[in-house]
Every structure is written in C-alpha cells, then in structure tokens.
Write a structure and sequence with these properties.
Length: 364
Amino acid sequence: MAKKYNAVNLGQGFPDFSMSSDLVDLVYTAMKNGHNQYAHMNGVPPLRNAIAEKVYSLYGKEVSPDEEITITPGGTYAIYTALTSVLKPGDEVIVLEPAFDSYIPNIEINGAKPILVPLTFPDYKIDWELVKTNINSATRFIIINSPHNPTGSVLSKADMETLAKIVSGTNIFILSDEVYEHIIFDNLQHESVLKYPELFERSFVCFSFGKVYNCTGWKIGYCVAPRRLMKEFRKVHQFNCFSCNTPVQFGIADFLKQRTQYENLGSFFQNKRDLFKTAMGKTRFIPLASHGSYFQLYDYKAISNESEKDFALRLCQEAGVACIPVSAFYRNGTDNKVIRFCFAKQKDTIEEAMQRLFDFDKRS
Ligand code: PMP
C-alpha cells in the first residue's frame, strides 16, 4: 500500500539508510579471498568465536563456540528452528501479545497450541500472575522478546528473576527473542537470558545481524543455547538450510572486532526516537513509552475513533504515511487505538513523514 499511495513507509521495520560500507568491503574481500563455498553447518569458526567473545564481554557468560552457537539465516529462522526442535502435537506455548508475527504460525505448524496471554495496557508489561495461571503440564515454552516488537517495552531484572522462579522445577523451555539487544534507550541495560544461568540452561536465545548492522536484507543471525538443546536445534537445522552464506559470515566475524559499531546503536536510534517524538509533539498523536527496538506506538484517540485498521488505511491513503495497526499483532485483533511507527529512518524521511502527519492532523 505504501508504494501504491506513494506514502512514506514507517510501517515495516527496516532502516532506509545505508549500512556500513566497511562491512560491505569486508564481505567483498572475503569473496575475493575465495570464501565462496559451503560453510560449516554450524557457522564458520571465526564468526562463532567472535560471537562467544561478544557474549562473554557483554553478559559474562562463557558459551562454547563449537557446541552452543549456530549461525542461521536470520532471527526468524532461529526462532522457527528452536520451536521445531522441541514441540510435539499437543504441546502448549505461552505467547505474550501483542507478538511478533512469526511465533504463532511457527507453533501451529508443529501441531502445538499457542496460549495467548495479553501484556498489560498501556505499559505492555508482563502480568506474571496471569502467566502462572496459564501454565499446566502441557506447557513446553514461554516466549519472551526484549526489547519488544511492536511496543518498545523492555524486560527488567525483576522480570527475569520472576520468570526464573516460575519455571524453576518445571520442564518449560524459554525462547528468548533478543534481536534488538543493542537497540535500548534511556540508560537501561538489556537483560539477556544469557545473564541468568538458571534461565539459560533451558533457553534458546535468538539474535539477528540484520538488526545490529542495518542490513535486514542479508538475513543472517544466530542462536545460542546450552549443549543439550543446541544438539536438537542442529538436527532440524541440518536438513533445513544446512549452512549459511559464507562470505557474509567471514565479513561479520571481522567487523565484530569493532565493538563501538554495536555499542553506539542504542544512542543512534534513541536520537531518531527523540527526533520523531519531538516533531510528533506538535500533533494530537500521543506517544506510548518506547524504551527499545525501532518502534514507537502512538495513541490517535484525540484524532479519530475509527478502528486501528481503518485508521491505518486512511493514514496511508490520505496522509501518505504508512504505519501498522497494533491489532495486527493480536490474534483476536485487540484494538486499543494505537498504531506502530518505525523510526529507523533517515532524518529526511522522518521530517517528511512528520510534515505529512502534521498536515493530516490539522485537516482532521
Ligand atoms: N524477532 C523480532 C521481534 C523482529 O522484529 C524481527 C524482525 N522484524 C525478527 C525476529 C527477525 O529477524 P530476521 O530479520 O533476522 O529474521
């Protein structure tokens, strides 16, 4: 629709600015150096070693590059593979909604059942009591995602400790979607599952280089899991994609040495969030808190009482700005009159979108 209506696309989550040309050069060099054949199934050793070092320095967790890290074609694939490694028909998986769109289909394709637990509104926090009441002997996984798409909420240390208590003594696995690990704002720390040994021992932790290096089209990521779980993960991986793009892996292995590239990502995107938010302050759109990811939700009740979907369609057609209705992230279409904007855009794009939203608000 954004193309059809020539709208500024703040809908889909992807950066519209250039990725690092240094990383492109490193991949090119890898190609020139002949790294063009199948990679090792688990990922090329230099990349797995570099990830193990990063994990240790960020989260204080020693993971084995040989047995606990597998390179994947993106975070989505890592999530699918983790779920498929474990789930059997009849199993239940707790999904906190609103949720990234691949979780539920990934559960159902395995014959398992998503148990949908809403996050609180408008803070989008986890109601752990509600989670507890939805656990039974069929519960196989709880999926968490921090920083969170679509809401920008983040999990705290207290959340992680509560989760650890809830799963203690059960056979429940954790799928932790941490693709936005570096895109976190307001001096908050990312609470990775990797920091909590009692959680990590039952977790698959999924990451995406597409998000870290502004190259979502490269589809490259990884999963970290303890040995006994990674063994199962690889049984699915072996006969699915088997191995990932070789030169990209060598290029990223080198680039990971430049720590500032990912350390500065939070402040880089926080500036964009704030630029967008300041300009939106001149409209009747009301921001909900965003502490991470590249998304911010806005409440439009002061402008319209249409459904989220109708409003989003009209915004695209009449304002020329594409967004996503948050109801699309709920199976039952929960409608709180909030829409998601992606602010991972260059300054000109944000300013153009702002002018259009400002004009639309004035006309409405
Ligand atoms: N999880 C979340 C929460 C995401 O937002 C995304 C990308 N939009 C992914 C996973 C998938 O990452 P990738 O593009 O590496 O498959």
